[in-house]
Every structure is written in C-alpha cells, then in structure tokens.
Amino acid sequence: EDDGRDALSLAAHYRENRLIRIGMPFLCLAGMALGAWTVTIPAVDMRLHVVGGVVDTHKLVADDSVLVYSFSEMVHDFWHSKAYFIASLLAVGGLALPQVKGFVWLYVWAASMSSEQRELILIISDLFSRFIFVNSCFMALIITTLHFQFSLQGLELEV
Q1: Is 43 strand, coil or helix?
Q2: Residues 6 or more apart from 37 whose CB is under 8 A from it?
Q3: Could you identify which of 67, 87, 93, 121 might form a hypothetical disulfide with 78, taking C-beta atoms 3.0 to 4.6 angstroms apart as the criterion?
Q4: CA angle (29, 35, 38) in 5-degree steps
Q5: What's the CA gap between 88 and 92, in Å, rounded?
Q6: DSSP secondary structure, 89-106, as one string
Q7: Is the pLDDT of residue 2 over 60?
Q8: How far is the C-alpha of 137 from the C-alpha of 135, rounded, in Å?
C-alpha cells in the first residue's frame, strides 16, 4: 500500500532534521565549487630558485615562476596537437561532469519522484562518478610526470 511518502522529495523526507536538510545541498554546492576551483588553479608551476652568495651561500637570491600551466592550457595543447580524444575526455571529465553531477544531485534532493526513479538516477550518477575518478587519476599522473628537479651549485630548477 502506497502512503504517498514514496513520491516525496528527499528534502521533504528529512524536513525535521535541519542538519541533513541544509547539509546535503551545501555538500553538493561545495563539491561543485571545489570542482570549478580545481580547474582554475595552475596544474604546473615551474619555479626557478636561485640560492647562493659570497657571504651566505644558502641565501635565496631569486624565487620566480617561469611557467604556469593551467587546466585550460592543457586541454588547449592536447587539442592543437590533434589528441582530440584526450582533450575531450579531460574537458568533459574535469569540467562538465562534476558540475552536471552536482546539479543532478540537487535535483534528486529537491524533486518529488518515486524511489525507483531516484535509484536509477543515482546509479547513473555513480557511473559518472567513476569516470570522474579515473579522469582525476589521469590528471594526477600527467601532473606527476611533469614534475622534476634540477640542481647545480647555486641554482635549483624545480618543475
């Protein structure tokens, strides 16, 4: 027997619990903001450290960024090197899917639907989450392989 609760939104199910009612949308929005922030920060920051001096050989003489490489530049470079598939995967997995997933979760939270519909949407969302995770691992691998350190007496180059 259906008592009508099945078609309520999740927010309505938790209307008595303020922490869950406010916390869940906050977590969705925070995840979306974090995803947007991660594609705006530099993926690679090549810095030049120059250490040395006549009196103090450990004195920092220069510490400057030589090259700053961002997510958008990485996608741009893959695209122009004709690696269209990798550029598309990076763009979709790093930018589009996390934002779409956040909106989907907010919709599932706020919209009235049956538990079967909600379950189907969440299963599909979970599959997208796995793609986002694999994409994040690929990005970490790229960033890690771009890191190296070169040192000479009085000169240190870290990429």
Answers
A1: strand
A2: none
A3: 87
A4: 140
A5: 6
A6: HHHIIIIIHHHHHHHHHH
A7: no
A8: 5
Residues 6+ apart with CB under 8 A from 132: 93, 97, 98, 101
The answer to whether residue 126 scores a pLDDT higher than 50 is yes
Give the DSSP H or E segment for 64: strand 60-70
pLDDT digits (tens, 9 = 90+) for 9-36: 888 888 888 898 889 899 989 988 888 8
**Could you report the per-residue pLDDT of 65-93, keeping only the tens digit for each?**
777 778 888 888 889 999 999 889 888 88
CB 7 within 8 A of CB 112: yes
* 22: its two tokens: 């406010």
Under 8 Å CB-to-CB from 49, ≥6 apart: which residues? 60, 62, 63, 155, 156, 157, 158
Task: List the structure tokens of 116.
Answer: 């079967």
Q: Determine the Cα–Cα distance for residues 143 and 41; give it in Å rounded to an integer.
A: 13
Which tokens go with 13? 């199910």
Per-residue pLDDT, 120: 92
